[in-house]
Amino acid sequence: MSEASPLPPAKGSAARVLARGLGLPLVAGAACVLGFAPFYAWPVPIAMLAILFHLVVTSGTPLRAGLTGFAFGLGYFLAGVSWIYVSLHVYGAMPAPLAAIATFLVCAYCAFFPAAASWAALRWGGSRAGPQLMLAAAAWVVFEWLRGWLFSGFPWLTVGTSQVPSSPLAGFAPLGGAYGTSLAVTLAAALLAALFQSFALSRARYRVLAAIAVLFIAGAVGRALTWSSPAGEPITVALLQGNVPQQLKWLEETRAKTLTDYRRMVLEAKARVIVLPETALPAFLDELPREYLEGLREHARRNGGDILMGTVERDFRGRAFDYYNSVVSVTDPAQRAYRKRHLVPFGEYIPPGFRWIIAVLKIPLSDFAVPTGKPELVMAGGRRFGVAICYEDIFGEEVIELLPAAEILLNVSNDAWFGESFAADQHLQASQMRALETGRWMVRSTNTGVTAAIDERGRVVARLPLFTAGTLVQRVEPRSGTTPYVLWGNWAAMLAAGVLAAAALRAARR
Hints:
Blueprint: H1 14-32, H2 43-57, H3 62-80, H4 83-91, H5 96-124, H6 129-147, H7 173-194, H8 203-224, E1 229-230, E2 235-241, H9 246-249, H10 252-268, E3 273-276, H11 290-303, E4 306-317, E5 320-329, E6 338-339, E7 378-380, E8 383-389, H12 396-399, E9 408-413, H13 423-438, E10 442-446, E11 452-454, E12 460-463, E13 470-476, E14 479-480, H14 484-488, H15 491-509
Parallel strand pairs: 2-3, 3-4, 8-9, 9-10
Antiparallel strand pairs: 1-14, 2-13, 4-5, 5-6, 7-8, 10-11, 11-12
């Protein structure tokens, strides 16, 4: 890419420049979502990012490049996370205009990061397309990581996740995690964009094609490697999906039916470990009838197994309660529960200065506490489970805190908040990335979907349909071993992005 010739600023009528600099990247960003679940069209994000990078290096000025990146990001997130509107309006009772504005502002905030990456590519990439493209690839990943960290983080739609499980580039996940895979995607896109440019030497095209081939071959080799090994005989796990509508879940008149339905599902399940989803029962743990819990324990004892349940715990502290979103062992009450550590802003806690929003949102239990100390593994069926509640499993750097001790990963969730949007499937794909990063099976028990079992290579082995009540019984293999990502975390990806950026800056100065 370093042999590309200088490019002139974009020319043409104002309308043409506007359509090319804003309209085309907006559409490309929206199309990028096709790479994610439920579509899994993994080549699409590579092609769409190539279009973005081509538009950036031909934009002429850093400001135009930044606006182009912003338009791409706006299309990307408006198409990909519009389910925020469903959560705020349909289930949070926020007025429709206010919910629409809030959703747009969240998407505009997320679009700032592609804008900053695009601006940086032209600001420091010199006058040649080669260094600019290299810097764009590295900057995208750095700013994507920042998006997953600032203000408690929102790493939804990390572009590397789009490659799981089928793309050859998914082979970089055990090495560098989602961000390492993102770097492979952006580098492939930058190389593809380089083919659009004019080269002083025609042989440069062959170098670019060779680099693309090497990148995909390296990813394919990574996919063929095995980083973990069986840690014992498979165990049967029953994953319950109650399909309780969110708007009815906490109503007093539906409470008895929910308790009855889940008890029936537990008693019918024939498995060593039975899992109920996040906040499965509409009551605090200490409010559940003693005879109800004892009936569940007796069933587990007869099966020689355990029951794990998502629930809300409360501890009395002085004059008030602390509430915890937890997973507890019904069969072993003495075992310490796993309590959720990464809370959802506005859904599970109110950030400082925003207490007034409680008057607008009608979300129950929106002020949970954060536990202290290290995360706890949960023992069930004689195996160590590493638990993530709700969207905790989109943070790869937090999931690996449970490893290498955890033999199986478990996610309990309630994606009913997002209605019939892409959110539940996108969340499933994030779980697939966690399984591939860690070399562990991931099992998911959710209220309305997607309840699924995922093997150590990120493949969905079995799943239940969305918005149906049912039980998924699957033989799950406990595994041991450590992937490089478990050892290095996100530092490997950031180091690689830094090396690529440094190479781009050096080439720009030559």
